[in-house]
Design a protein that fits this description.
The protein has about 300 residues and is an alpha/beta fold. The protein is built from 9 helices and 16 strands. Helices cover about 40% and strands about 25% of the residues.
Length: about 300
């Protein structure tokens, strides 16, 4: 073995050694991964994300995937001659659109199950309707009726706990039922946050189309790799955070305030961003944590 080959092998060993304390720390801990955005539209990125989650499971984590499917839903809505309509980032969902959304989300769900199974790991695809997992009520936005868009009112984690106990990897589609058993579409970020809180997850990771949090989105030098809850609240209050980032930041801080130890915003367009964030000292995205937490 020549010097160059030896250095390459040693580099791999150093990566494994760096990952060891994180593997020890989070062994048998629950991690909820919200999977959506452009990472779902690219087949190679899909494989990368699924491999990352599979590795987390094989080294001792208890991962749960909560997925979206917005772009595919919009595509199918267009195919039937309808125009996608959004209010404050939420899809207006009439009865026909709800039927399309459920069809597409189930299709996405089973595709992810297949990809995980191909890696030799047993996965089960469910929706929030199964086992009463996600209870909802009709959601309004600034007083406007959005149709069959649900706001989560309760989470029953029993089914997820049973699946994890039996060594399955649960993959959850964000659909829920109200008290009258009507079906509602749910924002996938909200579903992931609610599930992470109910499960007492150690980590919640959002795979998104952004690298993380910037104090000034136009200035790359203002990237923030670590944020306490109070620091995040301060950025919002001072107007540094706006638009589509506001609800995402709210979900991150809400999860931390309700018992989730770490929340991460990651760029899902970058291969293996999840592993780089979880298993390296520097990380790759923005991590949220409690004010009294000593890293």
């Amino acid at each position: 073995m020549n010097t160059q080959e030896m250095e390459k092998v040693l580099g791999k060993a150093e990566v494994l050694i760096e990952a060891l304390p994180y593997i020890q720390k989070f062994n048998r801990k629950v991690i909820v991964v919200k999977y959506g955005g452009s990472a779902m539209a690219d087949e190679e990125l899909q494989k990368s994300v699924v491999k990352d989650v599979a590795l987390l499971k094989l080294v001792g984590f208890k991962p749960i995937i909560v997925h979206g499917g917005g772009k595919e839903i919009s595509g199918w809505v267009k195919k039937v001659g309808k125009e996608a309509e959004f209010v404050n980032g939420l899809r207006v969902t009439d009865a026909e659109t709800m039927e399309i959304a459920e069809m597409v989300l189930n299709k996405v769900n089973k595709r992810l199950v297949k990809m995980v199974e191909e890696l030799g790991i047993h996965a089960i695809g469910i929706s929030g309707k199964d086992g009463g997992l996600l209870k909802v009520k009709k959601r309004f936005s600034d007083g406007q009726d959005l149709g069959f868009v649900g706001e989560i009112t309760g989470v029953d984690p029993k089914l997820l706990l049973d699946l994890l106990e039996k060594d399955f990897l649960p993959i959850v589609a964000p659909i829920g039922l109200d008290n009258d058993f009507n079906t509602y579409n749910i924002n996938a970020d909200d579903a992931a946050c609610a599930i992470a809180k109910a499960m007492g997850a150690n980590k919640l990771a959002f795979l998104t189309d952004i690298e993380g949090v910037y104090k000034d989105p136009e200035d790359p030098s203002t990237f923030i790799s670590r944020l306490t809850v109070s620091e995040a609240d301060s950025l919002v209050e001072k107007g540094y955070i706006g638009g589509g980032m506001l609800p995402k930041i709210a979900n991150c801080t809400d999860a931390i305030k309700n018992g989730v130890s770490r929340v991460h915003i990651l760029d899902g367009r970058k291969p293996h961003s999840l592993l780089l964030e979880v298993f390296t000292d520097t990380g790759i995205g923005t991590m949220f944590f409690r004010d009294d937490d000593r890293l």
